[in-house]
Design goal:
CATH architecture of the largest domain: 3-Layer(aba) Sandwich
Strand content: 15-25%
Shape: globular
Number of helices: 12
Strand order of the largest sheet: 2-1-3-4-5-6
Bound molecules: S-adenosylmethionine, iron/sulfur cluster, FE3-S4 cluster
Number of domains: 4
CATH class of the largest domain: Alpha Beta
Distance between the termini: 55 Å
Structural class: alpha/beta
Largest sheet: 6 strands, parallel
Radius of gyration: 22 Å
C-alpha cells in the first residue's frame, strides 16, 4: 500500500472542526502523514457543511478544482465526509464521478478503514448511516495546544424550520459526564488552559440525571483549566439554574444566544419556541446576574413571509439589547427543510438590502460597546501571531473580544494582563501590562 499523505479541508462549524481533529488523529495513528497543502497530498478529504446554499456551492466548486488535480495524478484519493455528504451523497457522486468515497456524519470514524479498502479494491465506497452511537476514546490531533473543543452532545431535536442540522446530524445524544471530564482532565495534564464545550443546544444536555448546569460545576472543578466557554445556547432551554452557575469562577463572561429574529410572527414560523419578550427577559436576568457579560447572537433576515415591519422589529430589539456582536445571515432556502417549501419567499434583493441595514446598525453598536473598554485592564489568552503584523499577537478576553498587541510569540498559550488602549468594530488594541 502506498504511504498516505492526507490533506483535510474543513467547512462549517466548530463541531466539524473537532471532527476533523479526530480524522487527523485517526490517520496519524494509522501512520499517515498530514499536509497543509492539497498539491503535495495523495489523499484529499473535504469535511463539509450544508447550513446555507452558499456553502454548498463553494464545496461543489472546490470538488471541481480538486478533480483537476486528480486528472494530473490518477493515484490521488478523493473523498467527502460531513454534513453535505450525509445529505447529498448521490448528487456528489453524480457531479464528481471521480470521487473515491463519500462518508456520512455517523461513519467518519471509520475513514481509515474505508480509505484502505478503496485503495485495495479500487472501487468507490459510499457509507452513510442514518443513526449511530458516537464512539468514545478516539485519538485527536488538536490544532491548538491551549484551547480545546469538547463536544458534550451531538445532533439536535429542535427542527427550526430553516435548519438542516437535525437532518444531517441526527437526534440529540448527550455524552456521559464522566467521559467529558476524563477528556478535560487529560487536556489539563497536557497544559490546556481553556475548554469550549460544544453542542447545537448545550442547554438541553442531559446525561444520567445531570443537566448542563451540573456539568459546568464539574468542569469548573478540573484543576489546571482556567477558562470554560460553551456554545450554542438555545434561549428556550436557558434555565435560572444555569444562569446561577454561569457565575462560577472559570466560566467566561460571554453568552452566545441566537435570537434569529425580533418579530414574534417570524419566530413562531421559525419554530424557535420563544417570543421576543421572553428572550429579552432572559437577557435581563443574565445581565442582572453577571453585569460584565458580553452577549452575542445570530440573526437571519428575509425569512419567508418577513415583512418590512417584522424586519424593523429585529432592528428595534438589537437597539434595545445592544449585543456585543452578531453573526448575520440572509435566509437561505435549504432543500429538505420545512421553510424552503414556504410560499412567501422574500426576493434576494430585499434580503440583501435588509442585511446591509442590519450590519450597519450592529456595527455601530459593537463599536460603541468596544469603546467602553478603552482604559480597562483585562485578562487575555494569547492565541496567535497577528496575520497583519508578525510583531503583534492576538488573543481573547474572557468576554471573547479579540485584542491585538505587541509581544513575543513565546507568550502564545499563556494568560496575560493587557490594558486596552484603542477600540474598533472587529478588535481592541492593547498594551501588555
Ligand atoms: N444550534 C445553533 C442555534 O440554535 O442557533 C446554531 C445552528 S447553525 C449551525 C448556526 C446559525 O446558522 C444559526 O443560528 C442560524 O442563524 C444560521 N442558519 C441556519 N440555517 C440557516 C438558513 N437556512 N439560512 C440562513 N441562516 C441559517
Ligand atoms: Fe438548527 Fe435550531 Fe437545532 Fe440550532 S436549534 S441546530 S438552528 S434546528
Ligand atoms: Fe455544522 Fe454546517 Fe453541519 S454548521 S453541523 S457543519 S451543516
Amino acid at each position: 500500500m502506498v504511504n498516505l499523505k492526507a490533506y483535510i479541508q474543513t467547512y462549517g462549524c466548530q463541531m466539524n472542526e473537532y471532527d476533523s481533529e479526530i480524522i487527523s488523529g485517526l490517520f496519524k495513528e494509522r501512520g499517515y502523514s498530514l499536509s497543509s497543502h492539497p498539491e503535495e497530498a495523495n489523499l484529499i478529504i473535504l469535511n463539509t457543511c450544508y447550513v446555507r446554499n452558499k456553502v454548498k456551492h463553494k464545496i461543489y466548486s472546490k470538488l471541481g478544482e480538486i478533480g483537476k488535480l486528480k486528472k494530473k495524478n490518477p493515484e490521488l484519493l478523493l473523498g467527502v465526509c460531513g454534513c453535505l455528504a450525509q445529505k447529498e451523497a448521490e448528487e456528489i457522486v453524480a457531479q464528481a464521478p471521480y470521487i473515491d468515497f463519500v462518508v456520512g456524519t455517523f461513519n467518519f470514524h471509520r475513514l481509515p478503514q474505508i480509505v484502505e479498502k478503496v485503495q485495495k479494491n479500487q472501487q468507490r465506497i459510499v457509507e452513510i448511516d442514518k443513526e449511530g452511537i458516537f464512539p468514545e476514546g478516539l485519538p485527536k490531533l488538536r490544532k491548538r495546544k491551549f484551547s480545546a473543543y469538547i463536544p458534550i452532545m451531538r445532533g439536535c431535536n429542535n427542527f427550526c424550520t430553516y435548519c438542516i442540522v437535525p437532518f444531517v446530524r441526527g437526534r440529540e445524544r448527550s455524552r456521559l459526564c464522566e467521559d467529558i471530564l476524563k477528556e478535560i482532565e487529560e487536556l489539563s495534564q497536557e497544559g490546556y488552559k481553556e475548554v469550549i464545550l460544544l453542542g447545537q443546544n448545550v442547554n438541553s444536555y442531559l446525561s444520567e440525571g445531570k443537566d448542563f448546569a451540573d456539568l459546568l460545576t464539574e468542569v469548573n472543578n478540573v484543576e489546571g483549566i482556567e477558562r470554560i466557554r460553551f456554545t450554542t445556547s438555545h434561549p428556550k432551554d436557558l434555565s435560572e439554574k444555569l444562569i446561577e452557575r454561569m457565575k462560577l469562577k472559570k466560566v467566561c463572561e460571554h453568552l452566545h444566544l441566537p435570537l434569529q429574529a425580533g418579530s414574534n410572527r417570524v419566530l413562531q414560523r421559525m419554530g424557535r419556541g420563544y417570543t421576543r419578550e421572553r428572550y429579552e427577559e432572559i437577557v435581563k436576568k443574565v445581565r442582572e446576574a453577571i453585569p460584565e457579560i458580553s452577549l452575542t447572537t445570530d440573526l437571519i433576515v428575509g425569512f419567508p413571509g418577513e415583512k418590512e415591519e417584522d424586519f424593523e422589529e429585529t432592528l428595534e430589539v438589537i437597539e434595545r439589547i445592544k449585543f456585543d456582536g452578531a453573526f448575520t445571515f440572509c435566509y437561505s432556502p435549504v432543500k429538505g427543510t420545512e421553510a424552503a417549501e414556504f410560499e412567501d419567499q422574500v426576493p434576494d434583493e430585499v434580503k440583501k438590502e435588509r442585511l446591509r441595514r442590519l450590519i450597519k446598525v450592529q456595527q455601530r453598536i459593537t463599536e460603541e460597546k468596544n469603546e467602553l473598554l478603552v482604559g480597562q485592564k483585562l485578562e487575555v489568552l494569547v492565541e496567535k501571531v497577528s496575520k497583519k503584523n508578525p510583531e503583534e499577537l492576538q488573543g481573547r478576553t474572557r468576554t471573547n473580544k479579540i485584542v491585538v498587541f505587541k509581544g513575543k510569540k513565546e507568550l502564545i498559550g499563556t494568560l496575560i494582563g493587557v490594558k486596552i488602549v484603542a477600540s474598533g468594530c472587529w478588535a481592541l488594541r492593547g498594551k501588555i501590562l
